[in-house]
Backbone:
């Protein structure tokens, strides 16, 4: 059996584990909102119509922030449609997904859901068909105490206290020709800067995210970031990155190595942001909000919106079923996000429920976990303290898209307070079992608290409502600790977590 050597030293810190890395995303798309988080007829529904069974799974998943209400949807959205008495709210065409939006759930309901679920909202603004004024109106509605038109309207609608939303996305994917109100980088950069400047007149302490590219594969990638940041550098805090172009298209080895691509994407955005910084002689750094990422089988039938006269409410859309291999890739993308914690200050797994999601629901029925639920919930609950650089000396294998890649990829976190060190590992070889040899001597004497591995002899296994648990993280009985050295055998296409304590 081949061996991969990992060396971990608490002196080599990359940066803190950020709770905001474990964000997710709820869009008015398919069944994410309606029959996903909101299903008033469901036996577990609360007084607001929100499913308590889903909220419990959201808590178990360990989600920190939830981006809302889109996505492509937001670029044609009138937020005022979603406030006040529900029976008086207009139904509208949702041009992004060729659906009808009933506006049963709007900003007040969503923010109540966030409070119940214990997550922080990340509000996206429509800078596609709308602009500075509408962004200011929504900010006033959400955050101003009272005594003004929109803040008093919120109070009249039942929210006496301001919602105090801190995190705001200045539009969505405006580099994409599919986006309503698509713009050139210069047009968007100006609008983002002016919107941000106006919002800071209300509250300078907001965290504001400018739209970066909707993928590193966009023809304008790089130049888009450069132009937008040249216009908006002083006004914004973060620039977004979105990536979904990882899917198992017959080339399993390249798919399993998708994190190589995420690392490169992050390096490209930070290099561009730092080039603008140098040109401006600025001290401030712009960091990344990776606020849409996932595996997505975008070309499959389940992702094709309706057409013609068919404008359904909450149809089945983007309901990808995830395999064990998909879960291993999601785990490896989490490793990449953690490894880049110095520059990735927020991230959102897209999306949360039903739509390319770790949580699935039956309308009025069961809620269940997809395979991708497990790496996310383990990373979210176990990553703590500081992210450590892991020196990896691993056997490699050839991939068509990324050349030679290591069989094993890993990141570690170390929490001074508890003394716990956690190592997150993927074996991304399609066929090689690997022995891990982890050198932790610089941590002193350590105990193995737990070792788990997610794997299946059939990497195409998917969970269903009837069986979402016969594959999941299981104790790895091969793990041993001996005087600062930990060994464990990790099967091909697997995600493992080693927990060590004093
Ligand atoms: O998450 C699905 C879609 O992907 C979002 O609406 C859009 O922002 C992205 O292209």
Residues:
């Amino acid at each position: 059996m081949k061996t991969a050597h990992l060396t971990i030293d608490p002196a080599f810190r990359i940066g803190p584990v950020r709770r905001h890395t474990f964000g997710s995303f709820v869009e008015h798309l398919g069944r994410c909102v309606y029959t996903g988080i909101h299903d008033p007829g469901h036996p577990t529904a609360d007084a607001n119509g929100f499913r308590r069974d889903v909220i419990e799974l959201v808590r178990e998943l360990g989600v920190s922030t939830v981006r809302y209400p889109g996505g492509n949807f937001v670029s044609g959205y009138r937020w005022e449609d979603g406030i006040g008495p529900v029976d008086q709210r207009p139904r509208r065409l949702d041009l992004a997904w060729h659906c009808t939006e009933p506006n049963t759930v709007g900003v007040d309901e969503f923010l109540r859901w966030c409070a119940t679920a214990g997550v922080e909202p990340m509000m996206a603004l429509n800078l596609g068909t709308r602009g500075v004024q509408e962004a200011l109106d929504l900010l006033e509605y959400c955050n101003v105490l009272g005594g003004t038109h929109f803040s008093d309207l919120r109070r009249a609608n039942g929210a006496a206290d301001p919602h105090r939303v801190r995190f705001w996305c200045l539009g969505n994917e405006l580099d994409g020709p599919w986006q309503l109100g698509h713009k050139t980088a210069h047009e968007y950069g100006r609008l983002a800067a002016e919107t941000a400047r106006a919002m800071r007149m209300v509250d300078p302490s907001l965290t504001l995210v400018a739209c970066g590219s909707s993928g590193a594969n966009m023809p304008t990638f790089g130049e888009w970031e450069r132009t937008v940041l040249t216009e908006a550098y002083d006004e914004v805090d973060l620039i977004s990155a979105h990536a979904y172009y990882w899917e198992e298209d017959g080339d399993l080895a390249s798919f399993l190595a998708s994190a190589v691509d995420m690392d490169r994407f992050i390096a490209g955005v930070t290099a561009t942001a730092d080039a603008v910084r140098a040109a401006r002689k600025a001290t401030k750094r712009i960091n990344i909000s990776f606020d849409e990422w996932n595996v997505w089988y975008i070309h499959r039938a389940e992702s094709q919106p309706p057409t013609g006269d068919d404008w359904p409410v909450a149809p089945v859309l983007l309901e990808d079923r995830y395999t064990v291999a998909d879960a291993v890739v999601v785990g490896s993308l989490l490793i990449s996000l953690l490894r880049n914690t110095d520059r990735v200050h927020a991230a959102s797994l897209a999306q949360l429920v039903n739509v390319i999601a770790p949580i699935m629901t039956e309308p009025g029925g069961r809620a269940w976990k997809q395979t991708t639920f497990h790496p996310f919930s383990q990373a979210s609950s176990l990553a703590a303290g500081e992210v450590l650089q892991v020196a990896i000396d691993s056997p490699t294998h050839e991939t068509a898209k990324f050349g030679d890649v290591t069989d094993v990829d890993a990141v570690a976190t170390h929490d001074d307070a508890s003394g716990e060190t956690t190592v997150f590992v993927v074996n991304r070889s399609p066929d090689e079992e690997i022995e891990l040899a982890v050198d932790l001597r610089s941590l002193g004497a350590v105990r193995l608290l737990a070792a788990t591995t997610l794997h299946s002899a059939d990497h195409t296994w998917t969970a269903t409502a009837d069986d979402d648990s016969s594959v999941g993280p299981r104790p790895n009985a091969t793990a041993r600790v001996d005087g600062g050295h930990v060994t464990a055998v990790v099967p091909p296409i697997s995600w493992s977590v080693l927990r060590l304590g004093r």
